[in-house]
Design brief:
The complex is a heterodimer of chains A (456) and B (480). Chain A is an alpha/beta fold. Chain A contains 13 helices and 13 strands. In chain A, the strands form 2 sheets. In chain A, strands 1-3-2-6-8-7-12-13-11-9-10 form an 11-stranded mixed β-sheet, with helices on both faces. In chain A, strands 4-5 form a two-stranded antiparallel ribbon. Classes of the chains: A alpha/beta (456), B alpha+beta (480). The structure holds zinc ion.
């Protein structure tokens, strides 16, 4: 093995063992990142100084909607083209103090709003496993080619897990409140959570430990209760009924999921279908809540205090021109949808209806999780879309993933097989703050599922 | 006989006295340089998280209790979404669905008649920034925004439409101010904007239960201006209705200088605020013990004090003056604990004490004289140690130095001579020295005694107790 073919992750590994010098790292890492970026369009900004300091150091990237003082934070939007946050997200601060070294900020759907296409104002990220297909996010692409140990990103309706699944990776969305959201430029406050994309479950377990814990600057963050391992003597898995009747479910995904079920049977893990009538409501419910919150959360992009501004004849004209010019089409559609469903006349029929669905879904999931340790579902109904495919307002990519966001539960996706050249993930959803058990079960699936490694 | 009667409701915004803002740790102090007291949170920067100030919640509960409100079981916050450049986040955090307090009331007396004004609700919200223009708003090329005020905690107090005249509205507002000052939740300075009042004004035929079209009246920056603004608006609406016209529901500005109200030009009329619960703020469940502790920590409120002071036999005027200021009322009560002549005490407090405070531009709390010292001084007067006249001189010195009455009296040699033995000697001397005057008295000129009293006072350099002198002289003259 020559050193020329090493990945960033491998270089750091050698550096941590003293087998690669700091100087070598400082030269090689930016070269590799440039190759990755040219090939997959994964970065929005890359670090300028690659001195990781005293080992151990773990290379990481962060989605560009997580604030950093050292690099711009654009959310993939022209609106924040040159925006530099005066503070760093608490989760990244924690990661840094645990040895994570930030290589750069990665591409994402503008403001994280999309159906996991990985399309921003700046670029579209290609899937390293198949360059005709989308990666879903820059973070996933970088991690997939060994460019980083961990990609920290947000997961509002499942984007993090979806892109991990598209790229054959592990994607973990922690319990709402386990990781501080301060410094995450979220579009949907009640759904969004900082999580991590890694090559495998062990890395995810490590990364989660590094970013977890209460933060005095995020009142929703909590001290996690001690891990109670309910699964020491085996575990029980619930499969929500109707998973296979979801519209757009591809034959490939269905077959991989069925294979996973047989695998569990071989392992003598009890996996039972449980009554669940809400799957058809998941996407629309998450979209209504997400868009209502987004309309409000993104109202601060008005050109007054920061970000881009178009001048206008008067104040309202300035707002209209600024927001029309610098938000992308997908964001404007979503905000318009949000304005519609939360307007006075529609509030009851749409927003309140969605809130009621959310409550019902939450209650039902918690009831299921009383009897079962986890829910098991496909991560998405389909594999990574082609570059040409476009998405509608609600395309159902989040039909399985958004359940965890609506209920604030931890969820993890691991690769379970392939549909042609494209990986297929399966998803486990666990009890609140039961990430330890969740990751242990994910590890079992990972070991059984088998994976192919793709190098840049 | 008027054909129409006014129906008035007030919406009063009051700044809470917390040291930091509602959702961040920025200072709330008045008078900083523009945009000096701001941070990521109150500027609404991307990625910020609001941190609820528990003290503000406590003050809001305090205010609600002082207004006899029921306290919400859960205190949560909603977003009121609209765009304006003084609003950093594009939404204002307020309490739309569950106000902190509801169903309260304020009792007051208007021209001798007791009135109860119902409080519909009291809720918290954050203040917005302040626009700064060069010259006139329309002529200014640019607008600047000072966000120091953005995020300062306010409570909005909304009355039921129970007020029936401009004067009532003014009296209500003054009463409200007194109550909030008592509760210690705000300094309620209308001139500095820490208390702001909007009025909803409509007219209806006398005796009708219906409500007419109302206008919302803004820009009234003093109690006087609230009364005048509403008076003008009532007159304006009366004229319209008398001529058979219709009042247009709109927002109007009171122009203090011209003494009229004007419709406001409003570019942002679409008032669909899309209120929904703020997903970033964790609701506070005020536990019963906490609320009980807040209730216990409230001082005795003006109405209860009024009743108690009236019970002491004070006339209404005195009671009103003393209870209008919590510190003054506390001073009165503390002095009253050791000096029982209620009326004498109120004369002194409303007279000498308030006069000296005003002359020095001081608050009661800044006074160097304690209530106990005043009580001691008045006891000395009652015991005849000093005269009422010199007591005023003594009090001025006490006020200036904080010394006890006795110390001042000794220093100044003001002790009154009431010892009749000593005074008899002097009286004998004076009688002996003025035989002509004594003769006049004997001949029926009783007024002549005054001259002799004066002589005794002169001999004692004014320290003799004039009543005692009078008595001694009268006895001696009648007996000799
Ligand atoms: Zn602040």
């Amino acid at each position: 093995m020559t050193r020329d073919n090493l990945t960033v992750k491998e270089l750091f590994c050698l550096y941590n063992r003293g087998a690669v010098t700091r100087e070598e790292l400082k030269v090689k890492v930016p070269e590799i990142l440039e190759v990755i970026d040219n090939r997959y369009h994964a970065f929005i900004s890359r670090a300028t100084d690659f001195d990781p300091g005293v080992p151990p150091a773990y290379p990481c990237v962060a989605a560009d909607n997580i604030c950093t003082e050292s690099l711009n934070t654009t959310c993939g939007s022209e609106m924040l083209l040159d925006y530099r946050s005066p503070f760093t997200a608490s989760a990244l601060d924690k990661a840094r103090s645990s040895g994570f070294f930030l290589l750069g900020k990665t591409n994402l759907d503008e403001f994280g709003i999309g159906d996991c296409t990985g399309r921003s104002f700046f670029k579209t990220t290609f899937n390293p496993l198949s360059q005709d297909h989308l990666a879903g996010s820059g973070a996933a692409a970088v991690v997939a080619v060994g460019g980083a140990v961990a990609g920290f990103a947000s997961d509002a309706r499942g984007g993090l897990r979806q892109s991990a699944s598209f790229c054959g990776l592990t994607g973990l969305k922690p319990t709402y409140g386990r990781v501080s959201r301060r410094g995450l430029i979220e579009y949907a406050s009640s759904l969004d959570q900082v999580g991590v994309i890694t090559a495998g479950v062990d890395d995810a377990t490590f990364a989660l430990r590094c970013i977890s814990g209460p933060d005095s600057k995020d009142p929703a963050s909590q001290e996690s209760p001690p891990d109670q391992d309910s699964t020491a003597s085996g575990f029980r898995v619930a499969v929500p009924e109707g998973w296979d009747r979801v519209s757009g479910l591809s034959a490939g995904v269905k077959s991989v999921f069925n294979k996973t079920l047989s695998l569990l049977a071989e392992l003598k893990v009890e996996a039972a279908e449980v009554p669940f009538s809400y799957l058809p409501l998941v996407s629309i419910t998450a979209a209504i809540i997400g868009a209502t919150e987004a309309f409000s959360n993104l109202a601060n992009y008005d050109g007054v205090r920061f970000g881009k501004r178009m001048s206008g004849d008067h104040l309202q004209d300035m707002y209209v021109k600024t927001r029309t010019a610098f938000f992308g089409r997908r964001v404007k559609e979503f905000l318009t949808f949000g304005a519609f469903v939360s307007s006075g006349g529609n509030y009851r029929e749409y927003f309140l209806w969605a809130q009621q669905n959310r409550g019902a879904i939450q209650r039902r999931l918690m009831a299921i999780l009383k009897d079962y340790d986890f829910l098991l579902l496909p991560t998405l109904p389909f594999t990574a879309p082609t570059l040409a495919e476009s998405s509608g307002l609600v395309n159902g990519a989040d039909v399985y993933t958004a359940l965890a966001n609506l209920a604030g539960l931890p969820a993890v996706t691991v690769p379970a097989g392939f549909d042609g050249r494209l990986p297929v993930g399966v998803q486990l959803i666990g009890r609140p703050f039961a990430e330890a058990a969740l990751l242990k079960a994910a590890k079992l699936l990972e070991e059984q599922g088998g994976r192919e490694v793709v190098a840049p | 006989m008027k054909r129409f009667e006014p129906v008035i409701g007030l919406e009063v915004h009051v700044e809470l006295l917390t040291e930091t803002k509602l959702f961040c740790r920025c200072a709330t102090a008045f008078g900083a340089l523009p945009n000096e007291q701001v941070c990521e949170i109150c500027l609404g920067l991307p990625g910020h998280r609001p941190l609820l100030n528990k003290k503000a919640v406590e003050y809001a509960i305090r205010a609600a209790l002082a207004l006899n409100c029921e306290i919400a079981e859960q205190i949560d916050f909603d977003r009121k979404n609209y765009f304006y450049c003084d609003l950093p986040k594009g939404y204002q955090i307020s309490q739309f669905f569950n106000p902190t307090g509801t169903n309260g009331y304020v009792d007051m007396v208007v021209n001798g008649t007791a009135r109860r004004i119902r409080i519909r609700q009291i809720h918290m919200e954050e203040d917005v920034g302040k626009l700064v223009h060069q010259g006139e708003i329309m002529g200014s090329a640019t607008s600047r925004v000072d966000f120091n005020r953005a995020g300062i905690p306010l409570v909005e107090i909304v009355t039921q439409p129970d007020l029936r005249s401009a004067e009532e509205a003014r009296i209500f507002l003054q009463k409200l101010r007194t109550i909030l000052l008592y509760a210690g939740v705000s300094d309620c300075k209308m001139e500095e904007g820490s208390m702001r009042c909007d009025a909803n004004v409509s007219l209806r035929p006398v005796g009708s239960g219906m409500l007419g079209n109302k206008t919302e009246l803004k820009n009234m920056n003093s109690f006087r201006s609230v009364q005048r603004g509403i008076e003008h608006e009532i007159e304006r609406q009366e004229e319209i209705l008398e001529e058979g016209g219709h009042v247009i529901p709109e927002t109007r500005h009171f122009d203090e200088n011209r003494g009229l109200t004007r419709a406001m030009r409003s570019k942002f009329q679409a008032a669909d605020y899309r209120c929904f619960p703020d997903p970033n703020i964790i609701p506070v469940i005020p536990d019963k013990d906490w609320v009980a502790r807040i209730r216990e920590s409230l001082p005795e409120m003006p109405d209860s004090r009024t009743a108690r002071l009236t019970g002491l036999g004070l006339p209404p005027y005195d009671v009103e003056i003393i209870t209008s200021d919590r510190e003054l009322a506390d001073f009165y009560d503390a002095a009253c604990a050791s000096y029982r002549e209620a009326k004498t005490l109120s004369n002194w407090i409303m007279g000498e004490f308030v006069r000296l405070l005003n002359a020095g531009g001081m608050k009661v709390s800044e006074s160097r004289v304690t209530p106990g010292q005043l009580a001691a001084l008045l006891a000395l007067v009652d015991n005849g140690v000093i005269s009422g006249k010199s007591a005023k001189e003594v009090f001025e010195e006490m006020f200036a130095t904080g010394k006890d009455a006795e110390a001042v009296i000794t220093e100044k040699g003001l002790t009154q001579i009431s010892d009749s033995g000593e005074l008899e000697k002097i009286a004998n001397k004076v009688i002996a020295a003025n035989p002509a005057v004594v003769a006049d008295f004997k001949n029926g000129k009783t007024k002549a005694i005054g001259f002799l009293v004066g002589q005794v006072m002169k001999e004692t350099r004014g320290q003799a107790n004039p009543q005692v002198v009078n008595k001694i002289l009268a006895e001696k003259l009648n007996n000799c």
